[in-house]
Amino acid sequence: MAVTAKRENMRLLAIVLGEDDSKVRNNETSQLLDYGFNSYKINMIKSKDDVIDKIHFEKADTDEIEITTKEDISILLKKNDQAKKYQTELKINDIKLPIKKGSVVGKLIIKDNGVDILTVDVISRDNAKKKNILRLYLDILKEIVAG
Asked: Which CATH entry fits the domain spanning 49-146: 2.60.120.560, 3.40.50.300, 2.60.410.10, 1.20.1740.10?
């Protein structure tokens, strides 16, 4: 028997094998799930809605694009453990325009005391394309007049 349950931000899976009686199976899966929910918690490090950074482009139709993680980043902790402060390192790929919303633009590395523990993709929250030649020309004229 395989069952799953979700409480708050944590989903658990319990599997019981080799029991002939359904009452025993139900009791054991309930005990396993209760143990998991009572013993562990989720430590949210970054939400997929958090802006990690902004990338500036000189020849794009937008000044900058926001980047975020592709998914929520969380770590499983024992209930009694204190949430840690993890270090992050952002590595941006060599990006060529155009960029579509949701495109992978790099990696975010999560570290615990200098040791890599998790690597996730970072994505663009916006579209960005190259400025056309007329727009580039007008931007140059603005700089000349303003300068």
From this structure: 2.60.410.10
